[in-house]
Amino acid sequence: MNEPIFLQSVFQERIWGGTKLSDLFGYAIPSEHTGECWAISAHPNGQSVVKDGPYQGMALGQLWASHPELFHSESPVFPLLIKLLDASDDLSVQVHPDDVYAGEHEQGELGKTECWYIVDAEPGASIIYGHEASSKEELARMIQDGQWDALLTRIPVKPGDFFYVPSGTIHALGRGIVVLETQQSSDTTYRVYDYDRRDKDGNLRELHLEKAIDVSTVPQAYEPIAYETQTREGITITSFVSNAFFTVEKWDVSGRAQLAARERYTLVSVIAGAGSLRIQGGEYTLRKGDHLILPAGFGSFELDGELTLITSHE
After folding, report:
1. Is 223 contained in some domain?
2. Which intervals hold domain Phosphomannose isomerase type I catalytic (predicted)?
């Protein structure tokens, strides 16, 4: 199949969500507390659906299972999940398990290594990334004593920043931030601290301290990220991270750029601008907020316009 697969997103309401997914991307969101756009997802908790073309109306998980020739992957499940998150309030401080722990404790769910591209950030916005405890015992004690300011490492952020968040990293988005998140296809989160917030029924939200302490990396390990950038006619490609879970790049298109095919599929999210994608026999409009898959064997193609894309693949 030599045409892109455009997807319809799924929206998730969250206690910390807002309206920026509508304000910035023009999405029709379900409420004023919309926290997540599951843009490219085959996870059972929210599956993207093909917008048009020969597979119109098909859920991504069904497409993955019934048309493996579109992906050329050895993974038994669609391995990635692409989200846009609107943190209009602070997210809970949390940590995610790796594949082994999740497989044993979460009914075979994948672990959750993820990364964030900061799309938008209000002045003074920050994230929590890592902690200061030197042992599991100290981590448990500082959590028990509520020593959050001493325990948690806070980092200021601005639009265009990128953060790699391996499983085991204690983390949280702060208020006033919109991110594009590339992650393993998992919905397992262990909450460490939630600011004593209550849900719509007035109950304190559940924490998962035993599991969180189990899976947290102690002492905190910070992996250096060395970006690689290449510029050629019409495009600058920034390679953020490439590992066993995913490869994530930013494509800044200005004018006309020719790109070669990949053997496997590529996931594409348009986070700024507008333009077009051209292949032999077809042209497709690209707008901010579009999410699509370039299937395996897609062939060479041309991008034209003023566009910023975040792309990923296995």
Report:
1. no
2. 6-117
The domain spanning residue 26 has which CATH number?
2.60.120.10
**Which tens digit of pLDDT belongs to each residue from 27-80?**
999 999 999 999 999 999 999 999 999 999 999 999 999 999 999 999 999 999
Q: pTM of this prediction?
A: 0.96
Marked catalytic residue, from 14, 154, 175, 191: 191
In eight-state DSSP terms, residue 297 is T
Residue 138 CA to residue 128 CA, distance in Å, equals: 18
Its domain, for residue 235, covers 228-313
CA 45 to chain centre: 15
Q: Are strands 228-232 and 266-279 parallel, antiparallel or unpaired?
A: unpaired
- What total of structural domains would you count in the chain? 2
Beta strands in 19-79 (DSSP E): 34-40, 42-43, 46-47, 49-50
Catalytic residue flag (residue 287): no
